[in-house]
């Protein structure tokens, strides 16, 4: 799923996300590469143009170029744009309550996965407690009625079939009548398709829609056909009117071009994705998760948001200056530990960093060590926190007692801190290391 586009974007962003300095030219170069990646992914040209212009607008502003970590900020901007183009918020089906019938019209070309999707949707809605009736009104594809019957039996959903029927409008009408009589609350009408959009099909579907009066008219579009799926959706929307799209075969789509273009071009939201051939392979479509997947990253956005909440730019700058003057004190160290704690567990934080998911466990990070270090620091007096050199053996004993640790642990912490300061002194002349070090804190 989305392998190719995701690979492309991860490579691209790996090069910028760690940068603590980026220039407007850097941004322009990367945006140019994004443009190529999107075009290769078969995203609609108009969508690509809009994407590029908006991203450039947002990313070349001072707020980004001068932020604490412009690389990450830039990544977030691209992520947010992707989410926007994928359709912003998750959009669910808008069905009525159980005391009336909610008809859903499923539309799509032959082979798009319409019949399979009808069953997937029926299975999902009946799992959610709805009483679903499937109506076999695809009378064009010879095996469609049988296929729906077999699937219906498999998922335990009734299928309304009229033997030897030729008129889909009559079948749909009869299906609805039965639903009302037998107190079904949801009717899914599987309509006919064609190899391509033609006038006869549109006329038939318009007539079916008129009798069904659906609360949802959903197009099943084959994700793998890229821009052609977008053209088909546009046509259906103009001629029939759509309220949603189900993107089938998303599991086999390496590029994501249809997903990224559909909302902008048709104005119709993607509500579900088909992710396999089985009846349970239907998932709600979450724009933000798909964007994360495209960028090949963990949840970078929440990470940046969290970091923004806890690290103030001014403070970061002051810290850097302290380090440069080598007067980074134990009090500053305590402050850093508390900041890390405020941002949540180290494990969950690292899980949000690209490429880190599952690689580092809480144990590796030794968060216990941070915990007792915090206790040790909290047992020190203000004077000790400002000048660790005065902490002799008696003070160490008192601190160990006060923090419930041992003198050995206090020694170890102070040694570590001393080493850290030495290292800071060495590297503060090197700006690149400074940034890395700040991140490690
Ligand atoms: P229809 O002509 O539109 O009714 O198409 P079908 O429902 O018969 O589906 C056509 C083919 O696509 C079948 O082989 C399905 O198993 C397959 N298919 C449908 N949805 C998906 C999906 O989400 N993922 C994959 N991998 N295959 C799918």
From TrEMBL:
Residues given in the record as GTP binding sites: 108-115, 190-194, 248-251
GO biological process: SRP-dependent cotranslational protein targeting to membrane
SMART domains named in the record: AAA, SRP54, SRP54_N
InterPro entries linked: AAA+_ATPase, P-loop_NTPase, Signal_recog_part_SRP54_M_sf, Signal_recog_particl_SRP54_hlx, Signal_recog_particle_SRP54_M, SRP, SRP54, SRP54_GTPase_dom
Domain remark in the UniProt entry: Composed of three domains: the N-terminal N domain, which is responsible for interactions with the ribosome, the central G domain, which binds GTP, and the C-terminal M domain, which binds the RNA and the signal sequence of the RNC.
UniProt xrefs under HAMAP family: SRP54
Protein name: Signal recognition particle protein
Source species: Spirochaeta africana (strain ATCC 700263 / DSM 8902 / Z-7692)
Lineage: Bacteria, Pseudomonadati, Spirochaetota, Spirochaetia, Spirochaetales
């Amino acid at each position: 799923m989305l392998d190719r586009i995701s690979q492309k974007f991860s490579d691209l962003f790996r090069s910028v996300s760690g940068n603590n300095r980026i220039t407007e030219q850097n941004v322009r170069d990367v945006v140019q590469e994004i443009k190529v990646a999107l075009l290769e992914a078969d995203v609609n040209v108009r969508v690509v143009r809009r994407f590029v212009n908006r991203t450039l607008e947002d990313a070349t502003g001072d707020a980004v170029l001068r932020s604490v970590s412009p690389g990450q900020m830039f990544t977030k901007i691209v992520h947010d744009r992707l989410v926007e183009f994928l359709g912003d918020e998750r959009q669910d089906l808008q069905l009525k309550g159980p005391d009336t019938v909610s008809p859903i019209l499923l539309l799509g070309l032959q082979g798009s996965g319409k019949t399979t999707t009808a069953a997937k949707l029926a299975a999902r809605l009946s799992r959610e407690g709805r009483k679903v009736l499937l109506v076999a009104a695809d009378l064009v594809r010879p095996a469609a009625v049988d296929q729906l019957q077999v699937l219906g039996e498999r998922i335990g959903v009734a299928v309304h079939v009229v033997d030897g029927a030729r008129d889909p409008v009559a079948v749909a009408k009869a299906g609805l009548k039965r639903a009302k009589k037998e107190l079904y609350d949801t009717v899914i009408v599987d309509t006919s398709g064609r190899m391509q959009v033609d006038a006869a099909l549109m006329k038939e579907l318009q007539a079916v829609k008129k009798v069904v009066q659906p609360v949802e008219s959903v197009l099943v579009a084959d994700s793998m056909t890229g821009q052609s799926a977008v053209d088909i959706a546009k046509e259906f929307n103009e001629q029939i009117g759509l309220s949603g799209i189900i993107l089938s075969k998303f599991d086999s789509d390496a590029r994501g071009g249809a997903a990224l273009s559909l909302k902008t071009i048709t104005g119709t939201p993607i509500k579900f994705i088909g992710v396999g051939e089985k009846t349970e392979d239907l998932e709600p479509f979450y724009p933000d998760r798909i964007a994360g997947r495209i960028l090949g990253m963990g949840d970078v956005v929440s990470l940046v948001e969290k970091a923004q909440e806890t690290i103030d730019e001014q403070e970061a700058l002051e810290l850097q200056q302290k380090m440069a003057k080598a007067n980074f004190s134990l009090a500053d160290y305590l402050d850093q530990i508390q900041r890390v704690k405020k941002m949540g567990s180290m494990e969950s934080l690292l899980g949000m960093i690209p490429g880190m998911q599952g690689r580092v466990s809480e144990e590796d990070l030794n968060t216990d060590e941070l915990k007792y270090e915090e206790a040790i620091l909290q047992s020190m007096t203000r004077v000790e926190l400002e000048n660790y050199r005065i902490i002799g053996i008696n003070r160490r004993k008192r601190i160990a007692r006060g923090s419930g640790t041992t003198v050995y642990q206090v020694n170890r912490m102070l040694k570590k801190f001393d080493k850290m300061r030495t290292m800071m002194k060495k590297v503060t002349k090197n700006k690149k290391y400074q940034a890395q070090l700040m991140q490690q804190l």
